[in-house]
Amino acid sequence: MNNATKPTQEAHYSFFQGVERNFDKAAQYTRFESGILEQIKACNSVYRMKYPVRIGDKIEVIEAYRVQHSHHKLPCKGGIRYSMDVNQDEVMALAALMTYKCAIVNVPFGGAKGGIKINPKNYSVFELEKITRRYASELVKKNFIGPGIDVPAPDYGTGPREMSWIVDTYASLKPGEVDALACITGKPVTQGGVRGRTEATGLGVYYGIREVCNTAEDMKKLGLEVGIEGKKVIVQGLGNVGYHAAKFFYDNGAIIVGVAEYEGGIYDEKGLDIYKVVEYRKSTGSIMNYPGATNIVNSAETLEQPCDILIPAALENVINGGNAARIQAKIIGEGANGPLTPEADEILNQKGVIVVPDMYLNAGGVTVSYFEWLKNLSHVRFGRMDKRFSENQNSSILASVESLTGKKVTAIERTQILHGPDEVDLVYSGLEDTMIGSYHEIREALLSLDNKVDMRTAAFTVAINKVGVSYEELGIFP
In sequence order, which residues have a C-beta less than 8 Å from that of residue 469 and are 6 or more positions away? Predict the structure, then answer.
């Protein structure tokens, strides 16, 4: 990203202090005494480590972190990111957000986060494996990883490959542990992963925004029709989250009018074929000069183009005090972590824009990670026990209906009716139910406060209430 597209840094507090600021804003609407609130806010355990790894013909000292924010429920849960921007404050902030995110979507984990301060592009696969396996062994030494202790996952700069290295290292250091696969999620399916995990966050973004658009009262306030179909959408970022979110919107009748990437943006009010845009970028290395679309050289200006729904799914602080007033979207769905600054929040709320907060909207990943953890603990693939039973039962019902009516369904209809649930069907169903239910919990909190606060504050209120009740019920306060 060039200097022209970098957001201005307005706030003079750290990332973690920013999370605490949002927490304090919501805490006044809860019933808990200050001591419980302070305990909820605090990071319980911070592990900062440095360890040597031979890189080429030199020894390199690697800086890494694992933070467990809350132990109100165990295990703790949160991703591991590889980035030169990793520092203790960032990891603490992300761990805190994980606590609140898990509470909002009713996933029974405490929040955690990890990070290694490297640029993975600067290392060979063999070197990355050495760095990752040593990190895993350091976590094992200090009891910072385990199926009932702390369950990491992929994050920025990591993926299924790194998760498979970590689970293998853990299993080798814990011989005979029957639940070893449950020490981490986001693994390849062949290594105990779950189908649907790759697209989970993007699909969660779609389900969440779809539920907003299906709420007639809110759409009336915005002057929009109910439903996703026909809504104009701009997506920033074609990474894992942005691509899958755009794909699900496109497949379900929304019109993708703009796409922003680090090299620039493209806009076409008639709509873009997201599949063709991705293929074009693969073949040319850029989305720029896509046939029929208008180029936007300054990527950030793509976010300011006319649309109904804006999905920032790439970077932090891309919508800020400098550009928030120019945003034309009526709904903003935070696919990325922290894409709006507090100043942008205030400006957009005054404009009547619905900002769907990241701590709810991008919780699809941790929700499906929870399903993977359950799968690993149960040692059975979802759908294995009941798929064939469901198909046989559906076949009997269909045969009875056809016999009674004297009519036959089409081949396509027969396939759809007889289909028993596969693992991915059950994962999608569980995620959909989670996102719908959690959205209405947040909306109920918003309405109970007479709309005096924004949706982010309502979401924090929901999370604080759930974590606070857990602490009360634990009875740990003498």
Answer: none
Delineate the domains of the chain, giving CATH numbers in brackets: 43-191 (3.40.50.10860), 194-386+421-478 (3.40.50.720)
Average pLDDT for 331-354 = 90
Q: Which residues pair with 267 in a beta bridge?
A: 258, 294
Decide if 113 is catalytic: yes
Q: For residues 350-388, b (16+ Cβ closer than 10 Å) or e, as one string?
A: eeebbbbbbbbbbbbbbbbbbbbbebbeeeebbbeeebe
Q: Whole-model pTM? A: 0.89
Any residues with CB less than 8 A from the CB of 436 and at least 6 apart, and which? 207, 211
pLDDT of residue 452: 81
**Neighbouring C-beta atoms of residue 84, cutoff 10 Å:** 12
Calpha distance 373→146 (Å, rounded): 11
| pLDDT the model gives residue 363 | 93
pLDDT digits (tens, 9 = 90+) for 173-198: 999 999 999 999 999 999 999 998 88
Are the C-beta atoms of 150 and 76 separated by less than 8 Å?
Answer: yes
The one catalytic residue among 77, 113, 187, 247: 113
C-beta neighbour count of 240 within 10 angstroms: 18
Packing angle of the helix pair 88-104, 15-27 (nearest 10 deg): 30
